Amino acid sequence: MISFSSVWFRWGKWFIILPLVLIAILGVIFFIYVNLAFPETRCEFVTHLESPDAAADCFECHLKCTPKIAQDWYESKHGVILVKCFVCHGQPDGKGSVPYAVDPDVDGTCRKCHDPSINRMEHLYGLELNCNKCHPFHQNSLHHKAYVKPIAKKKIE
Amino acid sequence: MDVTRREFLKCAAASSALMAIGGPLAFAATEQPVDKWVKGVCRFCGTGCGVMVGVKNKQAVTVKGDPNNHNGGFLCLKGALMTPIIYAKERLTQPLIRKNGELVEASWDEALDLTASKFKDAIKKDGPRSVAYYGSGQALTEETYLASKIFKAGLKSNNVEGNPRLCMASAVGGYVTTYGKDEPCGSFSDIDAATCFFLIGTNTSECHPILFKRIAARKQSDPNVKVIVVDPRKTNTARIADIHVGFVPGTDLAIMNAMAYVIIQEELDDYRFHSRYVSFMDNKKNKLTFEDYKKFLEDYTPEKAEKLSGVPAATIRKIAMIFAESSATMSLWCMGLNQRIRGVWANNLVSNLHLLTGQIGKPGATPFSLTGQPNACGGVRDTGGLSHLLPAGRLIKKKKHRNEVEFLWGMEPDSLNPKPGYHTIALFDALGKGKVKALLILCTNPAQSLPNVNKYREAMARKDNFIAVIECFRDAETLKFADVVFPAAFWCEREGVYGCSERRYALIGKAIDPPGQARPSVNILVDLAKRIGVDPKLVPFKDSSDIWEEWRRVAKSTPYNFWGITRDRLRKESGILWPCPTEDHPGTEIRYVRGKDPNIPKDYPKKYDFYGKPDHRAVIWFRPYKGAAEEPDKEYPFVLTTGRVIDHWHTGTMTMKVPELRRSFPKAYVEINDKDAKKMGIQNGDNVLLTTRRDKMVFQARVSDVCRPGLVFVPWFDVNLMINKLTKDAFDPGSKQPEFKICATKVSKV
């Protein structure tokens, strides 16, 4: 009769080690892929909080560490007209003029430019705490029709 | 309010549940974020976006776009992050006087009396030509008008200059020579109607982001809209371009002449228009004919232009045809054409294309010059804040104009000085030679912004001259050379008017009080003028609204007429475009067209009237191609060009105070083409030495395909890496604007 504890004693550690090794291998593959896919960008490995003044342009590093998000931004309306990361997300150390947030604050941030549209949305559908729910900022490409949709032109008195 | 323990617990549970869920109710529970919104205009570029300042507990806490202004509520990243600048720790709050080489705090009386006595001494010893004013396209309209009046009428010195000489003078020269009157004939609203955009010498995306947004929106709404970007750098602006034309820097004059050649050859010119409304002139102002123009253009076939510019002849033909065949073509240009030794000619050549094809005076069809500063148009060009101008387009040289202004200012006839003063480069040259003894600088930073700045820093450092600076920030480079510093109220700390690129006057409302002892510049100027001994009748102003009333009166009898733009209207509306002759006039979007421009009588027999010219015809100028002042050669094989990045503005005294913007671009860099970099073994981040005939400096490299081969670019915001030490101070003989955009440089890896 093989008890559970003896199995665990013999093989248990592999349940931990094998996944860890797998994660490490996947990590290395991802690192190599990113370096091959974006050869021009050199990752400086700057940690946000240790030397925030050396962080420079968010986009350059995030093209490597979060390529999907960075590329989505680049292709979005905000990307084409260069509304950069920090305008909505602030600074990672929270010392910017905009509070640091993954989902920007409607009143403090979005309203700076989109006050008329937010009022229009509020009038039509009631106010939502997070614009991102219906309007994914990073996927709002210049080529879709938001500007010409009649609803976008409607003025609320 | 009585709340039992049970009720309190209920409320607490409900609110925490709501907070966990999120949603509309939780949002509705937040308090009103600001006490009031005060209407204003953005402090940065010449787009002049409407901004509302949110005030809470007498502090400016946030900003948002003004939905009623031309920007429709949108702001760019600089505009949206503006508030930290107001409360920067570098703000000046007390006057400073230099004692034993150090700027030490002083009282207002001390500082004003010292400045006044130095100006009086200079005038007594060396005459009025030894004192000067150097102003700014960022000062309020009222401030520039007042300073110009104090110096020209009060002190009889025409040495009134300003940094618009470094950015807008060639555009003024271009408009005046072609149409007879300064300022664009169209407006921003043309962007919404244009079907072709011809962007030449402008990085609209980074320098005028909100206009770029409007162009992108226009392009998106109609896929047939064409965008042509002509720029040696492949900037972000080129991202929405159908055609990007990269060329050898400085050869754009040949390209535009070649475009005119193609337009005539393909019979795309509007003969009906140019035979009725256009005259043809060569450089010696001889009146010629269309046939002569054709002959002149034979030197500029696309094939010949290709040899000069490196642009394929087929591309030149293509862009010329798109330009002429589109139903409404709008040209936009900026410093790429203006900051050149042939800036006026380049401006004329853009207008030539429009006059040849009749692409003018219709919605969407217009040649439109973009301004770099928020108030260079309304503040300096209109009020005559330069050494050869008087208010509202009048010239110092003309006796009739002088007499008009003398009458309006209540002076004796022929009492104004008839000799124009020094232009900017000559002014700082004269300062270095000891001819100018006392200088008042307002709201600008010449110790960083002048070309070949080492030479002019030496001039400013001379011990025997006196420099007073009215400034907001103690870290501005010019303060190193100042003998007296007056702390000024910033942006929304006083009321005043800005006039942006499109002839739009808009009011910046007073939202908050200035810090410490800082005062509005208008009050500083009036006080100083009285102490120098200017006739108090010339400066009877309590605040900027008094000056606005006088300025309306002075402009009334001219084509600049904006009698209808009263202070009350400005407070209510978000900007009005002049000409605006009466209080019920909505403002003018298109000039020189009957029925649209109030300066043209309704029963005028023709549709167009270029009333700035004596024969009522605009001019197509025969402007030959001429290269830059300093072309690259064997020793200095690269072209160095300078410009802005979207995150910073001018010398960075403001944008460096915003943590986000500072961190985004902490220092200047050199942008190099990847092929050039490969040849020299330069990689991203390597240190690169740039050497010109003036100076040398090390920058970090950014390798990309933005610059074309043979070209390097350095932004000019960084005070520690001052690229203007390397630039050349050659200037346009007509407009006196220096050639910042082209000089020869050596590039080497260190």
TrEMBL record, chain B:
Predicted to be exported by the Tat system. The position of the signal peptide cleavage has not been experimentally proven. It holds the Pfam family Molybdop_Fe4S4. Keywords: 4Fe-4S, Electron transport, Iron, Iron-sulfur, Metal-binding, Molybdenum, Nitrate assimilation, Oxidoreductase, Signal, Transport. InterPro entries: Asp_de-COase-like_dom_sf (IPR009010), CT_Nitrate-R-NapA-like (IPR041957), MoPterin_dinucl-bd_dom (IPR006657), Mopterin_OxRdtase (IPR006656), Mopterin_OxRdtase_4Fe-4S_dom (IPR006963), Periplasm_NO3_reductase_lsu (IPR010051), Prok_molybdopt-oxidoreductase (IPR050123), TAT_signal (IPR006311). Residues 1-28 form the signal peptide. Coiled coil: none annotated. Its cofactor is Mo-bis(molybdopterin guanine dinucleotide); [4Fe-4S] cluster. It catalyses: 2 Fe(II)-[cytochrome] + nitrate + 2 H(+) = 2 Fe(III)-[cytochrome] + nitrite + H2O. GO terms for biological process: Mo-molybdopterin cofactor biosynthetic process; nitrate assimilation. PANTHER family: PERIPLASMIC NITRATE REDUCTASE, RESPIRATORY NITRATE REDUCTASE. Component of the nitrate reductase NapAB complex composed of NapA and NapB. Belongs to the prokaryotic molybdopterin-containing oxidoreductase family. NasA/NapA/NarB subfamily. This is Nitrate reductase.
